[in-house]
Amino acid sequence: MAMDSPGASMAARVRALVAAHRGDRGALLPILHRIQAEFGYVDPDLVPLLAVELNLSRADVHGVITFYTDFRSGPAGRALVRLCRAEACQSVGAEQLVAHAEQVLGIKVGQTTPDGSVTLEQVFCLGNCALGPAGQINERVQGRLTPARLEALMVEAVHS
Predict the structure, then answer these.
(1) pLDDT tens, 82-141?
(2) CA–CA gap between residue 14 and residue 46 (Å, rounded)
(3) Global pTM?
(4) Would you give the distance in Å from CA 95 to the centre of its chain?
(5) Known binding residues for [2Fe-2S] cluster
(6) Which residue positions form the known binding site?
(7) 111-112: strand order across its sheet
């Protein structure tokens, strides 16, 4: 990461986060969560920095980031749509809802629309099982989603 790049301020902030957790056992996960909360994603260019700062291998850092689906490697869209694919939601139409969302948005789960308006993600339980199929749009959990209701909520989220 070059010091004159926009990432220089991110690198400085990451060093401060590492310093705040230095000496903690298992510091990597809390640091990654803080990075994601602050920047919206974990930039892959931070892997070498985190590895050096935490005395870990790059492979270890990369492995943790890619293992946990909550960590994104790029910015999310203006609307973050997370659809539940756990068994309770599957039994009431979650797979059809996911397929509909992919078709309408023209992307697959894990992708962001080319215009940056919507990121579509999957989760495996939102704790809203009795009201499935469930989803989360910009941090707000929604139940009994239908294709039409999901589309309306996505439009509302993009324009709010």
Answers:
(1) 999 999 999 999 999 999 999 999 999 999 999 999 999 999 999 999 999 999 999 999
(2) 8
(3) 0.80
(4) 20
(5) 84, 89, 125, 129
(6) 84, 89, 125, 129
(7) 111-112, 118-123, 79-84, 135-137, 140-142
